Amino acid sequence: MPLYIGKSVNIRSRVLSHLRTPDEAAMLRQSRRISWICTAGEIGALLLEARLIKEQQPLFNKRLRRNRQLCALQLNEKRVDVVYAKEVDFSQAPNLFGLFANRRAALQALQTIADEQKLCYGLLGLEPLSRGRACFRSALKRCAGACCGKESHEEHALRLRQSLERLRVVCWPWQGAVALKEQQPEMTQYHIIQNWLWLGAVNSLEEATTLIRTPAGFDHDGYKILCKPLLSGNYEITELDPANDQRAS
């Protein structure tokens, strides 16, 4: 079993950096071998690091282990629900906001937004609300009064949506898989991605079809790593399809 998996542009410096604390020094004393895999850049290194940590579960890596309670807030016409990635396709479902480790974290985020914007806990489903009566927070001036007519439900819903917007989960914007080109003078890789899931890397577009498959599910780490570079316009993106009619953008 691997002790630790991590990315670095300089392996020697990375190893020496782990001598800073007694726990890290103990990890190095258990080490018998150091192996490495070259990538064409930062994106490939991050993706490979995340995949290997999930697959091999190294002893000293904890933060990227699989999370089977991954959830998000889904904004519907009259309410906010907590939905789970194991039940809803997060790459396609509209009106999803935030990616949370569990239901408690999702509701805590919603409560924080409600406190900041003086939204009504009752209308958000965070606490029971009696019809026609103001909530307790309204009397404390912590709710703008959508529960008792001081603010319309439409205004309340608009403020909620505006507050959630910064947490929006972007739907996969292509019909199928794409290839993201990453290169340096000595190496070029094409990252094959579908529904925010990294399927792997190949050295040429001709090899891309060997990796195209139906994604098994939404990958939180893949989304965090890939969303910004895929949408930035700074990389060459090629749409892939079964007929091999590839279009670069």
From TrEMBL:
An example GO biological process term is: nucleotide-excision repair
Q: Per its UniProt record, what Gene3D superfamilies does this chain match?
A: GIY-YIG endonuclease
- Domain of life from the UniProt record: Bacteria
For the keyword DNA damage, the answer is yes
- GIY-YIG domain span: 1-62
> Could you state a single Gene Ontology molecular function term?
hydrolase activity
Q: Tell me which GO cellular component terms the UniProt record holds.
A: excinuclease repair complex
| Keyword set, alphabetical order | DNA damage, DNA excision, DNA repair, Excision nuclease, Hydrolase, SOS response
Q: Which InterPro entries match?
A: GIY-YIG_endonuc (IPR000305), GIY-YIG_endonuc_sf (IPR035901), GIY-YIG_UvrC_Cho (IPR047296), UvrABC_protein_C (IPR050066)
| Record-linked NCBIfam families | PRK10545.1 (NF007833)
- The name under which this protein is listed is Excinuclease cho
Species the sequence originates in: Escherichia coli 1-250-04_S3_C1
Organism classification: Bacteria, Pseudomonadati, Pseudomonadota, Gammaproteobacteria, Enterobacterales
